[in-house]
DNA sequence: AGATAGGATCAGGGAGATTC
DNA sequence: GAATCTCCCTGATCCTATCT
């Protein structure tokens, strides 16, 4: 059984873990970035963020774990953006989005059934930490991962916005230039959100939530037995 | 056990705002 | 100006607690 420390993390910890995971795969592609932004080799933080692409590293050089003070990423000229190896061509992205939309449209959840605990945690985390106005491709992704219809996911966000309007929203753009409205915490973690990045965050968040709830249920079952043996 | 009330959630429609 | 999005309102449904 996994220890509680391993599964009980804040949502931003999940995002930060993801950023570290992606570090290895992006390190090669970002190696041409201005290295003057890196902390000095002697810095205790430099090892923690070693290999992390600079867009995930704060101005202090630390990995963006619940990050604040993220250094603005060096602007990449538009003509260069499309040539970056980790960005999918637009046509491929369109096909991918259509596939996901078809999958989401095929989901038939029970009418008016309330979201379960796992779905609620994931949705709330997205709402509180990433965005209260997810664009349609992200709604589709959530519908697929959480097995709710697109309509239900849309309505959940609409209703939640009605109930709690607190919190800041900042304007941003996707890697393809599409308009986004994100939470400040999301832009501090990553300035250039994409469908792929959001999908990975969503998958990990969903997995970890499931594991945590599983662990908590097991604990609840074990506790009475432990008390009896005392 | 069945009836009832109240709160929470889901979903649809209309009106106004925004974007292209 | 048309299309799209968001907000607001409303009704339906589900769940739980309480009463008879």
Automatic annotation (TrEMBL):
Any Pfam family the entry gives: Homeodomain
Keyword DNA-binding: yes
Protein keywords: DNA-binding, Homeobox, Nucleus
Location of the region described as Disordered in the Swiss-Prot/TrEMBL record: 30-51, 63-91
DNA-binding region: 108-168
Subcellular location: Nucleus
Basic residues bias spans: 68-88
Molecular function in Gene Ontology: DNA binding
The keyword DNA-binding appears for this protein: yes
SUPFAM superfamilies with a match to the protein in the record: Homeodomain-like
Any one annotated GO CC term: nucleus
CDD domains: homeodomain
Chain ranges of the Homeobox domain: 106-167
TM ranges: none
Name of the protein described by the UniProt record: Homeobox domain-containing protein
């Amino acid at each position: 059984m996994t220890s509680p420390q391993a599964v009980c993390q804040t949502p931003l910890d999940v995002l930060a873990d993801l950023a570290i995971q992606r570090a290895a795969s992006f390190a090669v592609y970002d190696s041409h970035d201005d290295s003057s932004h890196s902390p000095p080799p002697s810095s205790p933080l430099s090892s923690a963020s070693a290999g992390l692409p600079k867009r995930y590293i704060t101005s202090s050089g630390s990995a963006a774990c619940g990050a604040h003070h993220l250094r603005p990423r060096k602007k990449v000229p538009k003509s260069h953006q499309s040539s970056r190896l980790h960005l999918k061509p637009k046509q491929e992205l369109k096909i991918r989005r259509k596939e996901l939309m078809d999958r989401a449209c095929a989901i038939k959840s029970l009418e008016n059934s309330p979201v379960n605990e796992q779905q609620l945690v994931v949705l709330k985390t997205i709402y509180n930490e990433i965005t209260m106005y997810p664009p349609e491709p992200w709604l589709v992704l959530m519908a697929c991962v959480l097995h709710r219809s697109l309509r239900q996911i849309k309505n959940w966000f609409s209703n939640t916005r009605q109930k709690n309007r607190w919190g800041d929203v900042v304007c941003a753009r996707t890697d393809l230039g599409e308009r986004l409205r994100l939470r400040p915490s999301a832009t501090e973690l990553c300035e250039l959100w994409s469908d792929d990045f959001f999908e990975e965050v969503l998958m990990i968040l969903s997995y970890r939530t499931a594991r945590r709830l599983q662990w908590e249920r097991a604990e609840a079952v074990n506790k009475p037995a432990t008390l009896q043996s005392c």
